[in-house]
Amino acid sequence: MTRIFILVALTIWTASIRAALAEDLAEDLTEARWEEVSQIFSTNCINCHSSHGAAKGLRLDSYDAVLAGGVDGLVVLAGDPFGSELIKRLRGDSAPRMPFLATPLPPSQIDLIVRWIEAGMPKAQPPD
């Protein structure tokens, strides 16, 4: 009888932990909003990647421009952050590392962009 009680208690505990983790993951994905990503781009990228002589034709100064990519094609792939050239450049997995000749972005900012791409690159936060 004690074993059954322990088994039931562990099952309930495991289910509650899974539910909490799923909720945390959902919150992480909804936190990654374009307005936060665009602020990172505005602070670190648009000196070179804006309408004024965008390097390689890649503009990061508007949502539509980010989705359009540059002369070498798309730089973000919805749902595939680690297949996205932007993330490869920000992490230094592809050369040259970005931002070019500047301090790399903090991991927390790269993580926010990763979560935004994982979430499908939403332009606005969905209504509750």
UniProtKB/TrEMBL annotation:
InterPro entries (alphabetical): Cyt_c-like_dom, Cyt_c-like_dom_sf, Cyt_c_Planctomycete-type
Name of the molecule in the record: C-type cytochrome domain-containing protein
Residue ranges constituting the Cytochrome c domain according to the UniProt record: 32-121
Gene3D superfamilies linked: Cytochrome c-like domain
Cited PANTHER family: CYCLOINULO-OLIGOSACCHARIDE FRUCTANOTRANSFERASE-RELATED, F-BOX DOMAIN-CONTAINING PROTEIN
Organism: Seohaeicola saemankumensis
Keywords linked to the UniProt accession: Heme, Iron, Metal-binding, Signal
Pfam family, one: PSCyt1
Signal peptide: 1-22
